[in-house]
Amino acid sequence: MTSQITLKQLETLYWIARLGTFDRAAARLYTSQSAVSKRIAELERSSGIEIFDRSARGARMTPRGEELYEIAREMLEMQDRIQGLRTGEIDQPRHLRIGVTELTAMTWLPRLITGIQHRFGQTRLSPKVDMSRNLFAELEQDQLDLIIVPRMFSLPDFVSVPLREVGNTWMARRGLLDEDRVYSLLDLAEHPMLIQGRQSGSGLFYDKWMRNQGIRFPSTLVCDSMTALLGLVVAGLGISYLPNHCFQSLVEDGKLSIVQTDTPLPAVPYVAMYRQDRPHAFIHQVAEMARDCANFDQSYQA
């Protein structure tokens, strides 16, 4: 007697394909790798399809396995739609509450909104710009559906879709520091520093990194807003870390200069986050659109 294919098996296949390994899928599904392997073995027996190429390294699917994955994805989306019947969401205009930080708002958010409107015509959008910590708190409280923030928050009930990394460099007003000199972090600590605070995802990221480097800046001005911080740097009030490419025009115009250091700043990873305890097929599609749109190099992209 042939056993039945279950949604749990299809969900397991979906997350292996999305995350790339059995280990990551197991972590995402809060189970063991052996349980994941067992579900896939059962799915292969039930479907009669060899899903993964055992001769290849990693979780590489066969052509028929890829076809089964597409069916699994569609069935899981249908399951979300069925769950949506309870709240009356089916065949109703969607409402997407999306939260972003300043950097996303001033770079590629317009492209994402245009893409959502084109693909999901009935969607009513409510974008919000705020600090990362505030956005995550509102996501926790179900006041936002999706947020785009630096990867500094992690809880089991939330999904994080990797987007892009943002390279940063130290910058100062032209003439404030010697442009030909290579500074150490200790050298920089002798100057007034302008940094983002603990409401900012980038501020949290670099605060942790600098603590690991054993660096403490005695003279600092903390400002969570990157826009305000940029204005303070242009005014010559201190040195700060700023995105490499986004403000390149200010460097070319002679308003800012790049401070050369012997220890480069690590790039800040950005993610799209949403709750997994809500119907999320639509939200995940938007997160994937965000991954395709994400480009932090240019301001105000149409």
Automatic annotation (TrEMBL):
CDD domains: PBP2_LTTR_substrate. This is LysR family transcriptional regulator. Residues 5-62 form the HTH lysR-type domain. One of its GO terms (molecular function) is DNA-binding transcription factor activity. Keywords: DNA-binding, Transcription, Transcription regulation. Belongs to the LysR transcriptional regulatory family. PROSITE patterns: HTH_LYSR. It comes from the Bacteria. The lineage of its organism: Bacteria, Pseudomonadati, Pseudomonadota, Alphaproteobacteria, Rhodobacterales. It comes from Pseudooceanicola albus. InterPro entries: LysR_HTH_N, LysR_subst-bd, WH-like_DNA-bd_sf, WH_DNA-bd_sf.
